[in-house]
Please model this.
Amino acid sequence: MVEQPYQARLAEGLIRVYLTHDRVVGFTHQYPRGLLPLDQPSQASASKVFELASAAAYSDLRERMEAEWVPAMQEILSLDTHALPVIWDADFLYGSKTTSGDDTYVLCEINASSTFAFPEHAMPTVAKAALERLRERG
Model:
């Protein structure tokens, strides 16, 4: 466990990024009410809406995941792409905005063993990756 400072934008929710190996396959914007102080209720719905990997709202996050953060994690942990799970996710809280008003993100957690539910539109990609892994094992 890593001690993490309180994030002032917590009421704005978190972004869950779903991946197959090293590629983003979808997103969802969630509102973890349990993490909020009692006097700071979230204004958002409890429903979960899955979005495509190509969702414009998350294009910067997708680019950083695929081009920077996942490759850096693989290098640090000496992980080949196919050693990554066929479905996993990373949750990001909103950090403070940059001086130009852009969002920043703070890693909240990574889920690699019990990622369910995940975007229905990602199921064919996940199934294909799982079959390829089984074939590799012969």
Q: What stands out?
A: The chain has two helices and five strands. The mean pLDDT is 86. The beta strands are 14-20, 23-30, 50-51, 88-94, 105-111. Residues 59-77 form the longest helix (19 residues).
